[in-house]
Every structure is written in C-alpha cells, then in structure tokens.
Amino acid sequence: MQRVPRALPLLAAPLMIAAALLPGAAPAAAAVGAVPAAEPVPLTAESAREFVDTRVAELLEEHGAPGVAVTVVGGGEQLASASHGYSDLAERTPLDHTAQVFPLASVSKSLTAAAVLTLVDSGEIDLHEDVNAYLPEDARLATDGITMHHLLTHTAGFAELVDIPFASDTAAHLTLDGVARTREPEQLNEPGRFPAYSNHGSGLAGFIAQEVSGIPFDEFVEQTVFGPLGMADSGFVQVHEARGTLDLPAFHLADGSVPEDLHVSASPAGAALATTDDMARFMLALLGGGELDGEQVLPESVPALMTDRQFEVHPELASIGYGTYQWRGGDSPVLGHGGDLVGMHTGYTLVPAIGAGLFVAVNGDDTSPETQANPLLDLRMAVAAAFSETFAPQAPPSGEADPGADLGPYTGSYITSRRAGSGPAQLTVLLDNMVVRDGGDGTLSVGGGMALDDRWLPAGEGRFVAENGEDELVFLEEDGEVVALATGSNPTQVYERTSFLASPLTHGVAAAASLLVLFTAFVQFRRARDRFTVVARVLGALTALACYAGVGILAYGLFVAPHKVEEWVFGGSLMLTAPLAAAVPLALATAAVAATAWARGRLSAAGRVHLSLVAVAAAVFVAVGAQYGFVWGLS
C-alpha cells in the first residue's frame, strides 16, 4: 500500500514525530519486482456511497479518531457524502457534514493560489517577475529574484517562520499586512534550488494579490473564487473568531481533550473555512477546467496551472503544482493538498485520470497506538490512500539489489530543507532527518522519522525504491557531488546533505556522552573536607541538573504530552530555553572553579579531572542545545 504524506501541515509536522531509532542493516531479501496494480472499482454513485458509508466508517473505527466527514466527486458531479463519529466527544454530539463548517488549515493554500492565478490570467501578475515589483517598499524582500512561481511552489528558499500564536495571546496576533511588513524569514537557499514548504510564502502570495487588486484579501477571494464557484458557506475567517457564529466541530487531541484555537497570522496560508459541499464544488471546478454547472467559473488557465507539474526534482517523482502537490506520481498521479491544525486534519485528492476527487476532514488525532505514533498513517491519510487504491490503484515502483554498485557516494546525513533559521522550532532538524548507510548487499539502509522503509533497492541513476514499495527517493547532484535526497512521498521538501560535525546524529551522540559525564556530578557527594570542595561539587551538580531539566522538559513535551512542544513553540514560552540558559552561567562558574582548583592545587587530582570533565560536558551539551535554539538569548 503506497502511503500518502502528512500533507505538510500548516504546523511543523516534525514537531509531532517522536525521534526514531536508527535501524541497523536489514537482512538480505529478494528483489522487489513489478507488482501489478489491483483491479480498479468503477467510480459510480453507488460505489462512492459504499465507500463513504462503509469503508470510511471502518477506517474511523480502526484509527479511533473522534469523527470524520467526507465527500466524493466524479463524472462532473458530487456523488456521495457522509459523516461518522462525534463533533464533540464530551457532549457526544454527532458530526454533521450537512450543517457544519470545517477549518481547512493548509488546504487554504489551494484557494489562495486559485485567486492569485486569476490575476496571472488577466496579466496583472507575471509568474516570473521579481515579487518586489508588486510589494510596497516597507514589505520588500532583502533577496532579489524571488518570483510568484517560487512562492506558489515553495521554492523561494525561505526558512520556516513560526507565527501562529494561540487565540488567547492577542498581543501576538498580526494581520496579513502586519506579517508582510514586519516579518521576513531567513534565506536558507537561493530561489529555485530546493523546495521547502513555507507558510510565509503562501501568505506573501495572498498579500501580493491584495496589493495588486486593491481589495482586502478575504474579499478578493470571495470575488474571484468563492462567489463564482457558488461556495456560499466558505470564507477566510480565524477559527477563534468563527466559533461564536458558525457551527464548527470541536478539535480533539489523542487523549480526548480540546486544544486551544490558534491565530493564523498569514491567513492565506491556513485560515479558510468550508463545508464538504463547497469543497466538492472546488474540486469539480479544478477537474472540469474551470467549468461548473455548465458555466466557466474560473479562467481555464487557473486549474491547468494548479494541476500541471510546475516544479520537480526528478521526472519520475511526485511534483508540485501551483497551490497543490502530488500525493502520488507515476502514470496515474494523485494531487491535491492537506492541512493540519492542532487536533484538526483535512485534505483533498484529485485523480484527473478518472475525473474523481475526495475531500476529508477529521476533527481529532488518532487514538490507535499503531497510527498515533506515525502521522504519515493517520485517519485522514488512510481515507485518502484508500480512495485512490480503490478507484485508481497503481502498481508500486520496483527496484533490484545490485551487489556490485558503489553506494558510498550516497551515504551520510541529510537534514530537512523545511527548517527554522532560529529559535526552538529548529527542533524539526532533530526530528526530521535521514541517515543513509550502505546496506552491504547492494542496497541502502535509510533511517529517519519520515523514512517509510529501512531497505532501499537501486532503480538506476541515483534513484532507489523502498523494499516495501511504499516510497522512492532520488539523490540530487550538483557538480558531480550528492547534495540532497528527495522522496516521492513528499515533494514539498528535500533533505540536504550535511557534514559529519553538523549532523544531528553526531550532535545526538555528543549530547548523550555529555549527559553520561554530567550524571556523575550527582553521585560524587562524599564527605567534603572543606568549603571549596562543597562549592565545587554543588556547582557541578547544579550545572548537571540544569542540563537534565532541559532534556526532561523536551522529553515530556514530545512523549508524555505530545502537543506541549507545539504549544511552547507557538506561544513563545521559555519552557524549552530557560533550563539551558541557566546552565550557561553555571557551566562558566564550574569551569572557573575547575581552573582555580588546577591553579591552586585544590581538590584531589581525580577531583580536578572530574570537575573539568563536568565543565567540558556542560559546554558541549549547551553548544548542542544552542545549535537547535534551546538556549534563551543564544537562539
């Protein structure tokens, strides 16, 4: 079964992924040959009804999410819709797709792209013109050469910019104008080099549409998309503002609790709301070349630009369109977009080859341990995958072990191109990276949170296929050197090759070794002979305690209360940065006492060595923490 990606959510998906243990080499196995695709089920009103009523209900039961709403289109019409489960677990109220409105999160980017492309169609925006030509002076980018093409394909080279405060943090709420004029992400790569999913880029595209049209963004989308398509119950509205007037489902975490709503400052990137019926109309317009109900409701160029391959790293991998991306490449591609808020997950998929589409909304996280641990397998993803596998199955890619191949050039450490430039959001690099090893039998071993298999078989010219058939990857070269790897399951980012010293694996080993040394500071309290010895030992223990507190808080936020890390990052909390900030002066004081001990002959020789090792270990641990933004004032 080929899994679809988590849809590169509005939120930083890697924050929800527990750091994976890197597996060892897999045992030798037979090569994966070409597996024929299953026979497709013809898409009719009856088969669509069977899918939404029966298969979706089965998947809800398997995954344990609160509720799911779904609609299917095909043959130019809406074929079937259904909702299962609960809108509010506490009240036991049923989810009702006929009455409720669903926050779309990053699915909003498709609506934004459609609106922007109407300006391209009219000649008011050139896709390949520097966007600074359209921006007011106080909002212009420091980097030249970034175009609307780059913004709509996530190839501007921006670092991740986290600007999604909680609803209660009103002082941190920004308008779209405020984001464009006051926030600019760091530039990690030159425009067009690598894809790196960017909420800021999509927000900036919407701001440009507002500037060029002279109409507030939400009104502009109403005039160009919602109104013409008859999406009467859709709009760009913040969730926390809509709750008092619209019927929205409650969001749920895996434990059944309801998280606080967020404020999406870059509203074009994730603040749209829609019903299942309205999303059916949007999908039909994209599938029908802009026609709906016998009328041309969108310029013909708009759906063509959105669904064509606009950026690719390899012709055989899934690609990116304008405001869309492929969930599956190959002979029968599946494309669309997905989105996530805390406790809310949405997505739509289009299968142009059969003129079909599906929209799904899930108002909570999975409770099944098997799928809760891996967001690539959540209910929203499972419904989307089941839809394409039922009505448009495709044989998985194939490869074959090559014992004579030189795989050394591919081995090494790779980090996600979608990463923050500063602050604790740099944690994504720790959780979303790949380590590639030579399997020793003509295959590669690939470890990482987003790796859908460990063993990968060569398929020619730097391309490899997962032994389980669920994904493929391609190594990208510049000047004959491998600089990145790209996966077929996630076209909106790549993994950039990094050096040994900059590798998260190296940092992890250094941090673990440091913690082992620091632990000895807790167990060396024998009867002290003098005040200097007491001071030295207390300082060493306090330094170690601060470092362990940082680890403990991070572990709690990742494993015990998984959404706490997101809460701290989005809320600008000091929870992640205060412990190591305290460790800095403590480590310096410990080092000073160690230096004094050596200079004046204080402590025993073993005591001086031990205290020095504690100071060095603390320095190494703090340095690693600072690398990922965990030291307040140094991130």
From TrEMBL:
SUPFAM superfamilies: beta-lactamase/transpeptidase-like (SSF56601). The chain crosses the membrane at residues 500-522, 534-559, 579-599, 611-630. One of its GO terms (molecular function) is hydrolase activity. InterPro entries: AmpC-like, Beta-lactam-related, Beta-lactam/transpept-like, Beta-lactam_class-A_AS. Residues 1-30 form the signal peptide. Residues 52-375 form the Beta-lactamase-related domain. It comes from the Bacteria. Pfam families: Beta-lactamase (PF00144). Residues 392-412 are annotated as: Disordered. Keywords: Hydrolase, Membrane, Signal, Transmembrane, Transmembrane helix. PROSITE patterns: BETA_LACTAMASE_A. Gene3D superfamilies: DD-peptidase/beta-lactamase superfamily. PANTHER family: BETA-LACTAMASE-RELATED DOMAIN-CONTAINING PROTEIN, D-ALANYL-D-ALANINE-CARBOXYPEPTIDASE/ENDOPEPTIDASE AMPH. This is Serine hydrolase. It comes from Streptomonospora nanhaiensis.
